[in-house]
Amino acid sequence: MANLKQGEFVGSLDCGTTSTRFLVFDKYANIVAQHQLEYPQYYPEPSWHEQDPDELMESCDVCITEASKRLEEAGWAKESIKVIGITNQRESAVAWSRKTGKPLCRLIVWDDSRTKNTVAHFEHKLQTVGIEVAPGEFKKGDAGVQALRQLSGLPISTYFSAIKLRWMIDHHENVRKAHEEDDLMFGTVESWIVYRLTGGAQTNLHITDVTNASRTLLMNLSTLTWDPILYKFFEIKDSVLPKIVSSSEVYGELAYGPLKGVKIAGLAGDQQAALVGNKCLKQGEAKCTYGTGAFLLFCTGEDIVASKHGLLSTVAYRDGNNKPVYALEGSIAVAGSAIKWLRDSMSLVSSASEVNTLAESVPGTGGVYFVTAFSGLLAPYWDPGAAGLLIGLSAYTTPAHIALATLEANAFQTRAILESMKLDSRTDLKHLKVDGGMTNGDKVMKVLADLGGFTVIRPEMRESTALGSALLAGSAVRLHGWDISQPETLAEVNTKGNAEFTPSMPEPEREKRWQGWQRAVERSRGWEEGIDE
Predict the structure, then answer these.
(1) Torsion sign over Cα 302, 306, 309, 312
(2) Are 325 and 302 in contact (CB under 8 A)?
(3) Whose CA, among 13, 74, 344, 348, lies 20 to 30 Å from 283?
(4) Residue-wise over 155-188: b if at least 16 C-beta within 10 A, else e?
(5) Do 158 and 119 contact (CB within 8 A), yes or no?
């Protein structure tokens, strides 16, 4: 195209649980061009959730190509994209061959809970054999649980990547063989994407950033390195592990496509990227992202805060060689996916937005509670055996009551995490910044404010996840003078307005509903127990 303008933009490849997007931002975080594409999901057994790594990669390539076309249609040369960042669904595990660069099996998605028996095996190992913390010195029982938690910041759970990788080695013959022969390459989704975008087996760039590595159960949270104590406990060879890098540095260049030669310089798991995108860069700032699941992160600065109330200690981000910034996190496995379930599996609604309309048609749930434990319960309960539960049903119950109960489940689980966060941080959050696709509906926000008892702040520009990886990438090359370590350099970024939702429910009613929710959760727990095979 003739006479295309030259700009200075940053691209962000956002590979979520169900779709991939490539967005192009200007210096103010205005979206100049974008493209989004859903990719196939596979559910071959109950509680299983898989994706094809090649199909996921194809969606990335299409989004980059189509967004580049949109950019040119808007009158800008594609060379205006100076650098890109990548953000991804976390914990999902990919296994591929070092020799061929090809996947060895489908990837296991973060919310897959097939690994209950693997969890039971390692819990039993902790209790009986223990974890070897020094040559010949084992800690077992509660001391072993605490030792593993202190090193990794995480409990043993179906949620984290090492458990998924161990299951692959145990159940896929080609993965087991590749592991034995040092041909296996393991990574979370951003690791696979960077590997492919930079040339695959030809260049063999095998990296992961600290935020994703901190979700594997294999990284030492203090040293930010793979810990032999951890990977030996899970019987995983260190030859399979990628190099750990910071969240903001130049890693390599795109090897093909319309943006060939453009540097990749920002990497972060989606929830940490959303924390950065919301500019929650200082101690005491928090955000919650409501997508497929919901994730509340509370920035703790340079301190690792060990939770005593069911939250996770995790890396928020690391800017180059600077000290890492840490966070406390509460993870909810099912948020927007419960609405998708109402639409696709139960046919209660024909579109996601219809849930809001249906929920608004009734003054309350008629006593119905919906514990959306489709793959167990994450924070602060950590019960892989919990099962989904609709309770309080009667002849009075209609689809509208169930729709409202689905929105309320989201609010109750958020409150449960905030109660834990309050105890751990000794800070009472007066307001909560939110983003993600589920926040588009005002009804969801009103329910959250009422049942949570706090003000909900929803920014006008809610693409915080993609923006976070863009800011990390731009900061690495000092585009627009951005510097993540100096938040004042981001003052002009995303300054559009906010919508605020304040609680209007009387406190006695709020507490009565909260007690009802806790009773419902107790009834859902321990339904399916893992067995050490």
Answers:
(1) positive
(2) yes
(3) 13
(4) bbbbbbbbbbbbbbbeebeebeebbeeebbbbbb
(5) yes
240-284 tens-digit pLDDT: 999 999 999 999 999 999 999 999 999 999 999 999 998 888 888
> Pseudo-torsion of CA 190, 192, 194, 195, nearest 10°?
160
Q: Are 67 and 463 in contact (CB under 8 A)?
A: no
Structure tokens at 528: 């399916």
Contact 304, 382 (CB under 8 A): no
Place of tokens 């749930």: 365
Q: What share of the chain is helix, strand, coil (3-state, %, to 5)?
A: 35, 25, 40
Backbone angles phi, psi at 316, to 5 degrees: -80, -45
Distance CA(378)–CA(413), nearest Å, equals 10
The one-character DSSP state at 81 is: E
What does residue 351 show for φ and ψ, rounded to 5 degrees?
Answer: -145, 160
Q: How far apart are CA 158 and CA 47, in angstroms?
A: 11
How far apart CA 422 and CA 311 sit, in angstroms, is: 11
The whole-model pTM stands at 0.90
d(CA 318, CA 248): 7
